[in-house]
């Protein structure tokens, strides 16, 4: 799989592993990483997690546009912090790295404000999507719904990365019914560090 110079990593739900996948892709591609909206700063942010697990230097990381204190949907966290988020606040950063990986917050229909969602941010940034999904029970419904939403919005789909124990039945179902490439499967790692991430990327 040849990844484009710039793309967006989103998930079918929260906690599906998109930050680990983003770390693997950032390290494997020697990319720059950007999390436009960070909701929740404790114990560490996603940018700090990717930095720690990849061992890459600061030149690979672009500061968040919004750093919201509460681990909630951006619209709710922004309201608590007294912040207003608008699509016009976001412009793609420039980088000297060969790739730019942009990681979303939660899934596609997570609200940013009273009228815009993460999928609207993806459209605004004009990026294709790498969709991260669980490999386990329930993933077919979540993944096909996300694929349908992306297609309805006219967002190009690079494909799906499945996170979790290998599940050939779910993999085949998503590929068949979703008519999307399966870019790879990220099996559970014994530890998340530069060595295991490099090995996982090599297996894609």
Explain briefly what this protein structure is.
The protein has 204 residues and is α/β, with parallel strands linked by helices. The chain has helices at residues 18-29, 46-54, 74-81, 118-125, 139-152, 168-178, 194-203, and strands spanning 6-11, 32-34, 37-39, 61-62, 66-68, 100-107, 129-134, 157-163, 182-186. Strand 7, helix 5 and strand 8 form a beta-alpha-beta unit.
What does this structure look like?
This protein has helices at residues 18-29, 46-54, 74-81, 118-125, 139-152, 168-178, 194-203, and strands at 6-11, 32-34, 37-39, 61-62, 66-68, 100-107, 129-134, 157-163, 182-186. It has 204 residues and is α/β, with parallel strands linked by helices. The protein has a single domain, classed as P-loop containing nucleotide triphosphate hydrolases (Rossmann fold, 3-Layer(aba) Sandwich), CATH 3.40.50.300. Helix 6 (168-178) links the parallel strand 8 and strand 9. Helix 5 runs parallel beside helix 6 (168-178). The termini are close together.
Number of domains: 1
Subunit arrangement of the protein? single chain
CATH topology: Rossmann fold
Q: What would you give as the CATH superfamily?
A: P-loop containing nucleotide triphosphate hydrolases
Task: Specify the CATH class.
Answer: Alpha Beta
Structural class of the secondary structure composition? alpha/beta
Largest sheet properties: 7 strands, parallel
Shape: globular
Arithmetic mean of pLDDT: 97
Number of strands: 9
Strands in their spatial order, largest beta sheet: 4-2-6-1-7-8-9
Computed over alpha carbons, the radius of gyration is 16 Å
Beta fraction of the residues? 15-25%
Q: How much helical structure, as a percent, in the residues?
A: 25-40%
Name the CATH architecture. Answer: 3-Layer(aba) Sandwich
The parts where pLDDT drops under 50 for at least 5 residues are none
Order of helices and strands: EHEEHEEHEHEHEHEH
